[in-house]
Amino acid sequence: MNCSFRYNLLRKKFPATSFTGAPVLSDAGFDLLNKLLTYDPERRITVDEALKHDWFREVPLPKSKDFMPTFPAQHAQDRRGRRMVKSPDPLEEQRRKELTQAELGSGGLFG
């Protein structure tokens, strides 16, 4: 059975040309995407076939990983931030206020 893509709407999501600045996908990229997203595993493209696909030889060519920027792991940054900044406990804040008022001698209406 010929692999036709008439039943999906991927081409609407990834147009071949765009005048609005939206991302575009070449015909080779569209072909690879369709082959990767084929539901039937018997008809789906293999990893080896995908890596040899024409899309990987289009301009712009893939870059070496040496040219890719690196960033610290996000979870490591979050952990450090949590140690430095604790979220306030409203009950603790209320208790601290009451203790401060009691020490200053301003105990509310009767103090």
The gist of it:
By secondary structure, the protein is mainly alpha-helical. The chain is 41% helix and 0% strand.
Description:
InterPro entries: Kinase-like_dom_sf (IPR011009). This is Cyclin-dependent kinase G-2-like. 41% of the residues lie in helices and 0% in strands. The chain is mainly α and 111 residues long. The chain has a domain of 55 residues. The radius of gyration is 30 Å and the shape is elongated.
Structural class based on helices, strands and sheet pairing: mainly alpha
Integer-rounded radius of gyration: 30 Å
**Extended strand count:** 0
Strand content: under 5%
Global geometry: elongated
Fold topology:
Layout: H1 10-13, H2 27-36, H3 47-51, H4 74-84, H5 90-104
Record keyword descriptors for this entry.
111 residues, elongated, mainly alpha
